[in-house]
Q: What sequence folds into this?
């Protein structure tokens, strides 16, 4: 096997020897354990990134386009091609790496599987899509280097070069690429011909550097405003047009949205200002238990406060609920006292960080351990568990391994990608398809690879049962809310349809968010609703 590539001798691509995969090439490649570890890391990278073909070459190409190096950074900073000396150093580095870029991976790692690898899921990357024809046509190391320089000049590098659509992340104050973008074509948008033509003309002038107007699209929901914007991106992507989604400006220029309606959330209860009322989560329907617990805690509730018992409180020991109520009451009194002695307008209390709020929903024995690789999150959760006396039932661990990040260890990127897909396969070979519109979410159940005799209603029934369970799960994972329509595989038996409907409602009761199936429509479609709690996953990712 070829062992002559020394990454430590690189001039402008010298950061490659710090790469957790490529650094293995500096070791003794005849060592079977070293080879096996490098192969394992490379396969994991292929699955997470959707790389196919000659893996070592594809991985290097990915690094060239997504990671910074001296050449790409210099070209981006100056807006100029690299100087003759920098260009020559780049040529030398590419020539040194050329065996890795052109020869089969097996020559270096001894595993032929990596010479033509097929990942479970290919991931579209427009940068590599642009580069691959140039790379395949390269006859010399200089040709390869020039292809990369052409790419850097046109697209830059990193996440911004890899995407066409972006969103502004308020939490990090950074722009993020949107990997899965619903492409639209202007010709497929029906009606508004004059408006579409004006929009196209104005955008054409804009991308060509000619005078253009700002545009405000107005109209009722569902008239095609968002679709028209998406279609413009598809139309002028190659001309450099990019789409950035931003959140609304805060009211009156303030940095955040504030509320004077103070409420404090615990694991079992929510305390707010009021007149001594006790109410319950709509998911608790045990009337006898509600009457019993209400009678026991009424004496502990201040007449100026209202109390809501969350779903987590059901069947919990009264002492735990009362203990939390007393703690929240003391905190509320301190806040009110602070408010009385503070000149308005002023911030009395910051709301819980989002992950602390989520944590409170699951402090009922479902979770045993939380693992994070973010120092701030670890410190916040550990402090909360200690203060709330929950550290005995739940632990938090800080994970640190630079060679194998947490998202790689648990293949989180792949899991997230799976959740973003329209199609979800069931165990029996059937599948469901989820489509989102502004008005509703539509879910279709298909037989797929399942050998189903349409007359065998029982088989269809069990397929629908499996689909109902997975649909309820996907609604939770994707945080889908609003009106949801499900088209199950048709069943003639009313008895089986009723059983399916009851099964669906049973699965929906497992949801922390209020959700319920309403009824069958005249076309035997199931209509259900789910309460909106924050944004759905497809808007966030």
A:
């Amino acid at each position: 096997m070829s062992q002559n590539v020394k990454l430590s001798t690189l001039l402008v691509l010298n950061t490659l020897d710090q790469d957790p995969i490529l650094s293995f090439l500096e070791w003794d490649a005849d060592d079977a354990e070293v080879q096996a570890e490098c192969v394992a890391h490379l396969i994991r990278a292929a699955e997470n990134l959707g790389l196919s073909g000659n893996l070592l070459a594809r991985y290097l190409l990915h690094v060239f386009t997504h990671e910074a190096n001296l050449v790409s950074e210099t070209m981006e900073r100056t807006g100029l091609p690299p100087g003759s000396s920098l260009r020559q150093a780049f040529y030398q580095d590419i020539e040194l790496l050329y065996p890795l870029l052109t020869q089969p991976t097996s020559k270096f790692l001894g595993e032929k599987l990596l010479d033509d690898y097929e990942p479970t899921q290919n991931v579209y990357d427009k940068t590599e899509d642009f580069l691959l024809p140039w790379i395949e046509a390269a006859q010399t190391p200089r040709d390869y280097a020039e292809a990369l320089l052409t790419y850097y000049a046109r697209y830059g590098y990193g996440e911004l070069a890899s995407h066409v659509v972006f969103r502004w992340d308020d939490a990090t104050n950074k722009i993020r690429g949107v990997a899965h973008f619903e492409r639209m074509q202007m010709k497929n948008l029906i009606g508004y011909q004059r408006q579409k033509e004006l929009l196209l003309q104005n955008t054409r002038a804009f991308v060509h550097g000619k005078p253009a107007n700002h545009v405000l699209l107005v109209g009722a929901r569902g008239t095609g405003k968002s679709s028209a914007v998406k279609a413009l991106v598809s139309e002028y992507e190659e001309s450099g047009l990019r789409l950035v989604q931003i959140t609304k400006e805060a009211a009156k220029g303030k940095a955040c949205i504030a509320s004077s309606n103070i409420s404090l959330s615990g694991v079992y209860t929510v305390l707010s200002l009021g007149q001594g009322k006790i109410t319950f989560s709509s998911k608790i329907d045990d009337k006898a238990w509600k009457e019993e617990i209400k009678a026991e805690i009424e004496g502990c509730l201040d007449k100026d406060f209202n109390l809501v018992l969350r779903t987590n409180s059901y069947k919990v020991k009264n002492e735990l609920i009362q203990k939390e109520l007393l703690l929240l009451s003391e905190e509320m009194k301190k806040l009110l006292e602070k408010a009385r002695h503070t000149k308005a307008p002023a911030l009395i209390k910051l709301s819980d960080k989002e992950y602390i709020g989520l944590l409170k929903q699951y402090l009922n024995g479902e979770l045993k351990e939380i693992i994070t690789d973010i120092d701030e999150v670890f410190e916040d959760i550990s402090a909360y568990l200690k203060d709330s006396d929950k550290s005995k039932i739940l632990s938090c661990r800080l994970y640190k391994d630079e060679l194998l990040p947490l998202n790689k260890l648990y293949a989180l990127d792949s899991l997230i990608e799976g959740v973003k897909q329209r199609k979800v396969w069931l165990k029996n070979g059937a599948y469901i398809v989820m489509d989102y519109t502004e008005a509703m979410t539509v879910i279709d159940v298909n037989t797929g690879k399942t050998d189903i005799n349409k007359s065998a209603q029982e088989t269809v029934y069990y397929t629908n049962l499996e689909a109902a369970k997975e649909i309820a799960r996907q609604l939770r994972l994707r945080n889908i809310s609003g009106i949801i329509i499900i088209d199950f595989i048709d069943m003639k038996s009313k008895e089986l349809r009723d059983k399916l409907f009851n099964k669906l409602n049973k699965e929906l009761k497992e949801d922390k968010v209020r959700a319920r199936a309403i009824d069958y429509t005249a076309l035997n479609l199931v209509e259900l609703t789910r309460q909106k709690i924050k944004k759905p996953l497809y808007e966030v990712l």
The chain has 19 helices and 15 strands. The chain has five domains: 7-161, 186-247, 263-340, 354-410, 413-540. The two ends are 42 Å apart (CA to CA).
